[in-house]
Amino acid sequence: MSTSLISKHDLLTHWLGHRNLTRRVIEKFPEDQLFTFHVENMRTFADLIKELLSLAVPGLEGIVHQETKPYDHDLPYNTKEALLQAWDEATPQIEKLFLQIPEERFPEDYNLFGQYNFPIIYNILYFIDNEVHHRGQGFVYLRMLGIEPPFFWDREKN
Amino acid sequence: MSTSLISKHDLLTHWLGHRNLTRRVIEKFPEDQLFTFHVENMRTFADLIKELLSLAVPGLEGIVHQETKPYDHDLPYNTKEALLQAWDEATPQIEKLFLQIPEERFPEDYNLFGQYNFPIIYNILYFIDNEVHHRGQGFVYLRMLGIEPPFFWDREKN
To answer: What GO molecular function annotations does the UniProt record carry, in alphabetical order (chains A, B) (predicted)?
Structure first.
C-alpha cells in the first residue's frame, strides 16, 4: 500500500486557500482598472478571472457528471461586485463537486472539456496552477498601478 | 485505507515539468533584460529565478537531512548561461533529494529554513506554487518586452 502524500480534504483546502488569495487580488484592483488595464497582447485581470471561473466549476461538473462540454470564458460580469459575487458563489460549488469525486477516480483519465485527456488529479492541479499563474500576472498589474499586492503566503479567508 | 491521489513519482514529474517550462521562460529573455528589466518595486526575472534556486535544493536538503539553515537568495549568477547552468544542475539534485523523502514523512511537520513550520507536502507544494507564481510574472515581463512567452501547458523537456 502506498501512503497518501496529500488527502482529498487537504488538497481541497489548499485550493480554497489559493482562492482566498486570488479574491484578495481582485479586491485590490480599482474597479475601472480591473476591466481596462492590461499589458499589450495580454488580457485584463477581469478576463483572467473569468477564465478561472469558466474552468473551475464547469470543469468539476464535467468530471463529476462525466460530461464533456466545451468551456466558455466569455462570462457576463462587468463590475467588480459581480465578479466577486461570482467568485464567492463558485466556492461552495467547488467544495461540493470536488468532494463528490471518489478518491479512486483521481488517477483515472478524464477528457476535460472534451479536449484535455489527463488523469483527474492533473486536471485539478491544472486548475490550481493556472490560477496561481494568472494571479501572479495580476500581482504585476497591481505593481504597475502602484498598488501593493497582498502577501503571497496569506491564504486565510478575509 | 486511503487511496493516493498522486504518487510521489508523479508529484516529482509534475514539478520537473514546471521546471522545464520555467527554463524555457529564462531562455526567452534577452540576456541584458533578464538582469535589468523589472516593474517598479519588483525584482528582475533573474532575481526571481535566484529565489527559486535558493529554495528548491537547499529546502529539500533541509528536509532530507533534517537541518534548518536559513536561505540565501543572493546567488552569484550574472549571466544567462550561468543561470541556466545552475538551473540544470539543480534538476538532478531535486530528483535525488525528493526521492529520498519517505512517503510517510510528507504529512509530517517540518520547519523549513527554520521559519516555515508546515507539513512537508505543503513545503513542496509551496516550492511549486512559488515557481508558477514568479514564472507568471516572467510571462508579463516578456510581453512587456514584446516577446511571446512559451505555452503555459507545455511541460516537455527541451
So the answer is: metal ion binding
Instruction: List pLDDT tens digits, range A102-151.
Output: 999 999 999 999 888 999 999 999 999 999 999 999 999 999 999 999 99
**Which of B111, B117, B137 has the alpha carbon at shortest distance from B52?**
B137
Query: Which of B39, B133, B146 minimises the CB distance to A143?
Result: B39
Chain A residues in contact with B14 by the CB 8 A cut-off are: 122, 125
Q: At what angle do helices B120-144 and A120-144 cross, to 10 degrees?
A: 50
- Mark yes or no for CB contact A133/B152 under 8 Å: yes
**Residue A41 region by backbone torsions, left for phi larger than 0, else alpha for psi between -120 and 50, else beta:** left
Please report which confidence band the pLDDT of residue B50 belongs to, taking 50, 70 and 90 as the band edges: very high
Task: Tell me how far CA of residue B4 lies from CA of A1, A4, A122, B42, B108, in angstroms.
Answer: 9, 4, 13, 39, 16
- Regarding an ipTM greater than 0.85, the answer is yes
In a mutational test of the A interface, the residue from B2, B5, B142 whose CB has the highest number of chain A CBs within 10 Å is B5
Point out the residue among A11, A39, A146 whose CB comes nearest to the CB of B140. A39
In A, which residues are within 8 Å of B121 by CB distance?
5-6, 10
**Element at B118 (helix H, strand E):** strand B116-119
Put simply, whether A121 touches B (Cβ < 8 Å) is yes
